[in-house]
Design a protein that fits this description.
two-stranded antiparallel ribbon
Length: about 350
């Protein structure tokens, strides 16, 4: 949200005193770049071979005459316009084309967001396929499910952005299947898998339609609100607090302001700090204090299924603790008896 307003969230988090301590290591960054360079070497011959094996269809195999248009232009707007033109020209030519790091534009909350997929391949039949190159391995043709899911969600955004261009390009169609290229087993050799992103695309489209426009957010802010990092931490804290935030633990992996929002959420006792799934289960209970009070029978409607479940869980916990305490006392008593008996036997032997 703040990125769309032209604010660098990393700089803002640093100014607030809550910098995000995560980031890709230099080694991982270099390894990813080296693998991508290998996949795209020789005009993308290996990449196109993998794509043709899995998504080639009835088209002839790509040869040495594959088009690789120059996408350089001034600024992201210029690069996005140049990419759109290259896609139209490649589709009209009716041959294979490989677009290396094209620039795509997608409207997010009323403002343009610029996206850069690893590659887009234009097929002779007019299909456009997104290619994602990742450095995590595929072992026995299978990769980590969480990482594949993240890559699918990322690729789905690219597909949505491409569909905007395809809608005004005759004969063009964006493939809902993307090509995921990863190292094979424990080597640096590339292998590929096809990922269907229709579900992720639909979810992302719904989320985009529900986003509040930046103009509406700005209009609701107090007069004179600024996110200038040069302001004092107190002023920045007040400005950021004026914008509602729906923190969840998942934010820690993607947002530079996540640690600041987590501190705010914990200070307010919000149940979102426990995760979205927990928040969904708790219904109208929005604070940790309210949840504990409902479980203890101090607040809440007993007829509410959530309150009833909490009280039942609290009763089971108390019962389990009581049983554990009794077992512990019994064990301590048995140990004391055994120690006394051992001392008596030792005294008898000595006599």
């Amino acid at each position: 949200m703040l990125d769309g307003a032209g604010v660098d969230k990393g700089v803002l988090a640093q100014a607030l005193g809550s910098p995000a301590p995560f980031g890709q290591s230099q080694f991982a960054f270099m390894r990813g770049n080296a693998f991508e360079a290998r996949v795209k070497a020789d005009g993308g011959a290996e990449l196109l071979r993998l794509l043709y094996e899995r998504l080639g269809g009835s088209s002839p195999a790509p040869g040495p005459d594959v088009a690789t248009p120059d996408l350089s232009a001034a600024g992201p707007e210029g690069r996005a316009a140049r990419t759109a033109l290259a896609l139209r020209e490649a589709t009209a030519a009716g041959g294979w084309a490989l677009l290396d790091h094209p620039m795509l534009a997608l409207e997010v909350a009323g403002s343009p967001a610029y996206l850069e997929p690893d590659a887009v391949v234009v097929h002779p039949d007019g299909r456009w396929t997104v290619v994602e190159i990742k450095s995590f391995p595929m072992i026995d043709a299978s990769a980590d499910a969480a990482k594949v899911g993240a890559a699918a969600r990322q690729a789905a955004v690219y597909v949505l952005a491409l569909e905007r261009v395809a809608a005004v390009t005759e004969g063009a169609e964006v493939d809902h299947r993307v090509l995921l290229v990863c190292p094979k087993d424990f080597s640096n050799l590339p292998t590929a898998s096809v990922v269907d992103v229709r579900k992720q695309r639909a979810v992302t489209r719904r989320q985009l339609t529900r986003l509040t426009r930046i103009e509406d957010i700005a209009a609701a802010l107090p007069e004179g609100t600024t996110f200038d990092p040069a302001c004092s931490p107190q002023e920045l804290e007040s400005a950021v607090s004026a914008v509602s935030a729906a923190y969840a633990p998942e934010c820690l992996a993607a947002c530079e302001l996540a640690f600041h929002c987590r501190a705010r959420s914990r200070a307010e006792g919000a149940v979102e700090t426990l995760g979205r799934s927990v928040r969904g289960e708790l219904g109208g209970l929005t604070t940790v204090a309210g949840v504990l009070a409902a479980a203890a029978g101090k607040e809440g409607d007993p007829a509410d299924p959530t309150v009833a479940a909490l009280r039942r869980a609290a009763a089971l916990r108390a019962e389990a603790l009581e049983s554990a305490a009794a077992l512990r006392a019994e064990a301590l008593e048995s140990a004391a008896v055994l120690r006394e008996r051992a001392r008596e036997e030792e005294s008898a032997v000595c006599r």
